[in-house]
From TrEMBL:
Transmembrane segments: none annotated. The keyword Ribosomal protein does not apply. Pfam families: MarR. It comes from Ancylobacter polymorphus. Residues 151-165 have a biased composition (Basic and acidic residues). Keywords: DNA-binding, Transcription, Transcription regulation. This is DNA-binding MarR family transcriptional regulator. PROSITE patterns: HTH_MARR_1, HTH_MARR_2. The lineage of its organism: Bacteria, Pseudomonadati, Pseudomonadota, Alphaproteobacteria, Hyphomicrobiales. Residues 146-165 are annotated as: Disordered. Coiled coil: none annotated. One of its GO terms (molecular function) is DNA binding. Residues 15-143 form the HTH marR-type domain.
Amino acid sequence: MSDVDDPRTVPEADAAALSMAVRQLFRRLRAEAEPGAFNLSEVSTLARLDLHGPATTASLARAEAMTPQSMGAILVSLERKGLIERRPHPTDRRQTLLALTAAGRCERQRRSAAKRDWLVAAMGRLDEAERRALIAAIPLIARLGENEGPADSREAPPRAEHTGG
């Protein structure tokens, strides 16, 4: 069996190169969606509310691996921008749900469209063989990002607040 066939022998340099490439692509996509408008925690919170629906501050904080106090500050910022709103919890009057507003949903769609448009154009600059190779790698890259493996079985560590753009 060659080293390439043995998953225990993935060269660290290859893993580092993939990590760098993913980070570079992530930064570029983020820049295309209006750099500096939102920090990573705000973008992630908007995405979570859009994908999973209304949630409590505590459940958002758990999902984002941060304290409820830190999540509260993010929610105040998004609420001031008119992107989320507070709603009464349907079964527990002590709790409040946070949900996207129409403006929040529009902002998510605008940001997604900007990133998608850039990516379509960038992929269009690749030759046919490069496009096919990239498209063939999509399921593998997605599988790497799925929730599986030792890191997901541990308690999520507190996440440092990101305040940059």
